[in-house]
């Protein structure tokens, strides 16, 4: 969470508490897989609008540089920083597009994002990766 917050701040994305209203909510998932003694962490961030409709899915994979008997231990600080960097870079690109933030230059935009709790509802829209409002 610390890495995500730092990366968001460096891109001027305001991360707020779940209790506050926000334009978008983000829910993240991590999964680890081990194949042929190589550990990979796959990650996904689903971005939902105020109507709980998914408007963007950001995803990627990071392969561990070291082997570890505990697959989750392979997700070291450096890997988590790379995931946070890539995630926030893609999220910032989406939030500062003219379709999402009309009339706002990417450097001046300060969109608000709330990180969703695992217990909150999870609207799913299979196959939709990005929806741009008309």
Give a nutshell description of this structure.
Helices cover 21% and strands 30% of the residues. The chain is an alpha/beta fold and 134 residues long. The protein has one domain (2-115): Double Stranded RNA Binding Domain.
What can you tell me about this protein's structure?
The chain is built from 2 helices and 5 strands, in the order αββββαβ. It has one domain (2-115): Double Stranded RNA Binding Domain (2-Layer Sandwich), CATH 3.30.160. Strand 2 (24-35) and strand 3 (38-48) form a beta hairpin. The longest helix is centred in the middle third of the chain and has 19 residues, at 77-95. Helices cover 21% and strands 30% of the residues. The N and C termini lie far apart (33 Å). With 134 residues, the protein is an alpha/beta fold. The model is unreliable at 103-109 and 117-134 (pLDDT under 50). Helix 1 packs across helix 2 (77-95).
Considering the chains and any ligands shown, give keywords for the structure:
134 residues; alpha/beta; 5 strands; elongated
